[in-house]
Amino acid sequence: MSLPLKPEGLPEADALPLRPVVARIRRLVVLAMLAALGYTAFTVSSKSSCSGGVNADGTFVDAAGNVTELAPSCISLALQPSVFIYIGFFAIVIGALTFVLRRASDVPAGLRYLDRAAVTIVILAVASVAISQIWFAMIPINDWNGAGTFLYPFPFGSVDLTITPIPTQYP
């Protein structure tokens, strides 16, 4: 037994106008998934720096070359995607569907809401990648002296900070 392609009692003319809206919703969901995948792939970066080192005689030196008793620190930053951007993608899709259900008076109006949501998702993804990568590149990690703070590209990206003492032996 096969299922009918259209609901019982629904004239053929009434079922046809829904196709463009459903196709546009499918396109919006696929676009949101691809934007999330692209955002995930391009919002990954890392950099690290060690201020100081070890002399030939095994003593520690700081960034200025002065001998110190404590091991200098190494800092490592890792840029990762932010959960807030994924929440933004989800909110845009749900908001567009809500607008279509509540405000669209006809099929072209519904398609306009869905098209605007698609453009908004693309702009959010591209802007988030660009802002987080440029901001991360501008963090002055080489000027770090063991104190102070860094400004991270929140909410466009998430940064993990790791501070470790400089290794005394190298393989």
Helix/strand/pairing category: alpha+beta
- Specify the number of helices: 4
Count the beta strands.
Answer: 6
Shape: rod-shaped
Average pLDDT figure: 86
Element pattern in H and E? HHEEEEEHHE
* Rounded radius of gyration (Å): 26 Å
The amount of helix comes to 40-55%
What separation lies between the terminal Cα atoms? 70 Å
What is the percentage of strand-forming residues? 15-25%
Main β-sheet, in a few words?
3 strands, antiparallel
Total number of distinct structural domains: 1
Low-confidence stretches: none
Spatial order of the strands forming the largest sheet: 1-5-6
Description:
The protein has helices at residues 12-15, 18-42, 83-103, 107-137; strands at 45-50, 53-54, 60-61, 67-68, 73-80, 158-165. It is an alpha+beta fold and 171 residues long. The chain has one domain. The strands form 2 sheets. Strands 1-5-6 form a 3-stranded antiparallel β-sheet, covered by helices on one side. Helix 2 (18-42) runs antiparallel to helix 3 and helix 3 (83-103) runs antiparallel to helix 4 (107-137). The mean pLDDT is 86.
Question: What attributes does this structure have?
Answer:
alpha+beta; three-stranded antiparallel sheet; 4 helices; 16% strand
Short description:
Helices cover about 45% and strands about 15% of the residues. The protein has four helices and six strands.
